[in-house]
């Protein structure tokens, strides 16, 4: 290991301690382990109300994480190079219903051409574990498993499953044709939804690097299903924000509300 690499790792370790300390000391916020991203860090977190119920989950990254990101030449070979970082959600809220976050950096984007082929991040908030993801090959018999669609009541309003959106280790990606990028507008941020074996498995904000660099304060309502297969706390909005004081970007599922939880009491004032 070079002196430069060692120095960089030490600097990032110090950065991690400082960046996460502010989150950890907040009574309403719990954080996951930080991972190196570019010249900075990325980590998962959850906000909880006074009763310990999750009211928001998300990822944050330091401003420096947008610098030094690997290009396609440093990615594994393939038509759509991507770098995946798996972020475990804090233990206190895991399985309610979200379990982990698949964070992807796509230096040249991905299909469809002319829509999503720009540098961007995919943030998959999964309701399944790594054991299931590992078995999603999207070939042979498993391709048929991927193509199984959930009961329509579990699919968010107006979402459809177009061809060519089934991906190994992820499953099927559903889109809504009313999204701006499918109606003549440039892609900046959008929201996808995922399934596998006829079951909902992820909720996914996608955000371009260029949009983050505008230091946004963005919030949008999420199109919701009629019903939820698993009991838990589900989002009604998602956010993409920049904190100037902390020099951090955040992408979150917000305004989590209880679904299928008997006598759930949520401190709505904390949202």
Gist of the model:
With 271 residues, this protein is of the alpha+beta class. The chain contains 4 helices and 16 strands.
How does this model look, in words?
This protein is about 15% helix and about 35% strand. With about 270 residues, it is of the alpha+beta class. The strands form three sheets. Strands 1, 2, 3, 4, 12, 14 and 15 form a seven-stranded antiparallel beta sheet that branches. It has a seven-stranded antiparallel beta sheet with strand order 5-6-7-11-10-9-8. A two-stranded antiparallel ribbon has the order 13-16. β3 (about 40-50) and β4 (about 55-60) form a beta hairpin.
Low-confidence stretches: 1-7, 263-271
What is the CA-atom radius of gyration, in angstroms? Answer: 18 Å
pLDDT averaged residue by residue? 90
Count of alpha and pi helical runs: 4
Highlighted features:
271 residues; alpha+beta; seven-stranded antiparallel sheet; globular; disordered N terminus
């Amino acid at each position: 290991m070079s002196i430069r690499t060692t120095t960089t790792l030490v600097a990032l370790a110090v950065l991690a301690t400082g960046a996460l300390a502010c989150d950890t000391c907040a009574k309403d916020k719990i954080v996951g382990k930080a991972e190196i991203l570019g010249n900075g860090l990325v980590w998962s977190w959850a906000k909880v109300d006074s009763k310990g119920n999750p009211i928001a989950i998300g990822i944050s990254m330091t401003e420096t994480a947008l610098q030094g990101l690997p290009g396609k030449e440093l990615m594994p070979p393939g038509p759509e190079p991507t770098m995946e970082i798996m972020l475990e959600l804090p233990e206190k809220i895991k399985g309610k219903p979200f379990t982990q976050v698949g964070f992807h950096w796509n230096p040249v984007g991905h299909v469809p051409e002319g829509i999503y082929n720009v540098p961007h991040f995919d943030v998959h908030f999964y309701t399944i574990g790594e054991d299931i993801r590992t078995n999603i090959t999207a070939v042979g018999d498993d391709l048929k498993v991927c193509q199984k669609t959930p009961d329509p009541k579990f699919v968010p309003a107006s979402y459809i499953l177009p061809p060519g959106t089934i991906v190994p280790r992820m499953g099927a990606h559903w889109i809504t044709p009313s999204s701006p990028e499918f109606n003549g507008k440039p892609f900046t941020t959008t929201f996808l939804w995922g399934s596998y074996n006829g079951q909902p498995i992820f909720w996914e904000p996608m955000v371009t690097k260029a949009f983050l660099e505008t230091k946004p304060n963005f919030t949008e309502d999420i199109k919701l299903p009629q019903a939820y297969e698993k009991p838990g706390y589900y989002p009604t909005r998602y956010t993409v924000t920049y904190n100037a004081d902390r020099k951090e970007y955040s992408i979150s599922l917000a305004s989590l509300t209880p679904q299928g939880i008997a006598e759930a009491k949520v401190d709505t004032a904390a949202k």
